[in-house]
Amino acid sequence: MGSSLRQQDDLERATHSTVQLLRLNCHMGTALDPRPQRREDCAMTRPILRGNVDATGTQRRIRALVVLGWTMQDLADQCSDVMSRRTLSAIASGTRLTCTIATRRIVAQLYEEMSTLPPFETISRQRALNRGWLGPERWTGLEMDDPWVTPWPEARPRPDVVAAIVARQAPPEVPTRAEREAAAWSLLDTHGARQIGRITGVPEVLAVRWRADWLKRNRRSSTP
């Protein structure tokens, strides 16, 4: 009787994230383990990688998973003893700008497994959205580990509207912010920041920063 009451109390204390994990694994036919495969199972078959690398991609992946509703503790549980909640939080917040090669690989594997799941509401998700963190849909098809790669805008721009802005013609519909920004990006190689601001309506300060980034990127790519 006492054992049953304790089990009932444990179930009542289960978090929403844990319930989501249980549903995920039941759907995948692995109900015996309420969590995806642990990282140490994979690590035992790979050589230990040492050295630090830029944490840009790792930060983006952690943030994207939190936007879906997962907590830092959920992610740390999947990493077992490899990394702690504190380490994940430091990378996500930008306190740590580098991480180990092993950390980047583990987080990338975790992201591949969990980023396609639908979002669910948690306090962590709301906090992440309030901070401006981006979900997986903003990085679809992009190289997340490249610091120079910028995310997709909130809505994909309509080509005809963008073309009208670039041609300095009246667009068929009222341009969205994403369409003005897409037009600005297409003019970076032919116009100065002030001209871009006047043509597209994008703030000149933003155009200056984008053009500077574009020049740095092209200078880097042209360096042998």
Strand-helix topology:
Layout: H1 2-12, H2 16-27, H3 39-43, E1 52-54, H4 56-68, H5 72-79, H6 85-93, E2 98-100, H7 101-114, H8 123-130, H9 159-166, H10 177-186, H11 193-200, H12 204-222
Antiparallel strand pairs: 1-2
Helix pairs in contact: 4-6, 4-7, 4-8, 5-6, 9-10, 10-11, 11-12
Task: Explain what this protein looks like in three dimensions.
It is a single chain. The chain has 224 residues and is an all-alpha fold. The protein has two domains: 111 residues, no CATH class; 64 residues, no CATH class. It is 56% helix and 3% strand. The N terminus is likely disordered.
Descriptive key words:
224 residues; mainly alpha; 2 domains; 2 strands; elongated; disordered N terminus
SSE order, one letter for each helix or strand: HHHEHHHEHHHHHH
The count of helical stretches stands at: 12
Strand runs, count: 2
- Radius of gyration equals 22 Å
Give the low-confidence spans. 1-49
Report the span from N to C terminus. 74 Å
* Residue fraction in strands: under 5%
Question: Judging from the principal axes of the Cα atoms, what is the shape?
Answer: elongated
What is the subunit organization of this protein? single chain
**Would you tell me the structural class of the helices and strands?**
mainly alpha
- Across the major sheet, the strand order is 1-2
Report mean pLDDT, rounded to a whole number.
75
Strand count, sense and closure of the main sheet? 2 strands, antiparallel
Count up the domains.
2
The proportion of residues forming helix, as a percent range, comes to 55-70%
